[in-house]
Amino acid sequence: MNKRVYNFSAGPSMLPVAVLERAAAEMTNANGTGQSVMEMSHRSKDFKPIIDHAEAMLRELMEIPGNYKVLFLQGGASLQFPMIPLNLAVREDGKKQKVTYVDTGVWASKAAEEASKYAEVRVAASSKDKAYSYIPEAPAPDTEDVYYHITWNNTIVGTKWNKIPNTGSVPLVADISSCILSEPLDVSKFALLYAGAQKNLGPAGVTVVIIREDLIKKVPDWIPTMLRYEIHAKEGSMYNTPPCYGIYIIGLVLDWMKEQGGLAEIERRNREKATLLYDYLDQSKLFRSPIRKEDRSLMNIPFVIGNADLEAQFVKEAAASGLVNLAGHRLVGGMRASIYNAMPKEGVLALIDFMKQFEAAHR
Ligand code: PMP
């Protein structure tokens, strides 16, 4: 294939072509330094403006208040599953502290399972009874909770929260891996937000953590240095070698977002793209969305036919037409179109056109 495909992968996923072209143009000589970003020492005067720029752009676009730290870490969103309880819930005397999780899918339940090694986890609500096809009401926190965890956008099943749960004085923690910067989010309502970069921000290998400063504390000695927010915050994400190239690409992606009109315009486009696809699904006689209307994700849109052979044929024929990675997650089957910020409207229209043809041929 010698043209670009529309890639509907859940992540890593599409990046804006303008960003890839800029990275290519700067590949051998970035900012007149005579070297690529990959070759720069992370402690050099050449790299410092790159990480500072990525952070400044993230702060600007997300309107992150001044009393929050932005960390660029490694280990994926998955490493945050243990890091959150290790930093927020472990006490010197070893007594397990209470934490609440809401189970809205595979990632939410993995986060809870990992936390249960270090904290007394209460899974206060779950939508597992209906294959995670909705977001449950958020129960009140326990008064003794040291934090309350939700997964804002559920990548595999395609649901998202639309209302920030009121947890009172209990710190609210959210996994925003698959929706960061897809629409405005009031950061001040959260104590900690985290996201792997490989969907809306850049390449895999960087995890962004946005944490309110009062939660950054000294932790017991047995907790590995690399797993302490305190260390990463003090060292400006440079305790060890950060994922330099990924951080640089994040800066370029955020520049692109600003050029496009900022988060308000990105949100408008995302709503437009998602509405086009949901409207088609809701009137289709072949395809349907299994997700409750009011809880549907703007980023991950699963759909089914209800016939595994026909679904496999759809995924194969779509790929041959340049619409790739439309198979649903291996745990749920069916199809899923992930339409992150960098997916152009033309890609969604091409998918709908293809679905219409497929429907006409298989009714
Ligand atoms: N949380 C969510 C919501 C995700 O979608 C993913 C990955 N798709 C993860 C966590 C795990 O992320 P990682 O692979 O970066 O560890």
Automatic annotation (TrEMBL):
Cofactor: binding details: Binds 1 pyridoxal phosphate per subunit.
Entry binding sites for pyridoxal 5'-phosphate: A77, S78, W107, T155, D175, Q198, N240, T241
InterPro entries referenced in this protein's UniProt entry, alphabetically: Aminotrans_V_dom, Pser_aminoTfrase, PyrdxlP-dep_Trfase, PyrdxlP-dep_Trfase_major, PyrdxlP-dep_Trfase_small
Compartment(s) of residence: Cytoplasm
Xref: Gene3D superfamilies: Aspartate Aminotransferase, domain 1, Type I PLP-dependent aspartate aminotransferase-like (Major domain)
Highest taxon above the source species: Bacteria
Protein name, as recorded: Phosphoserine aminotransferase
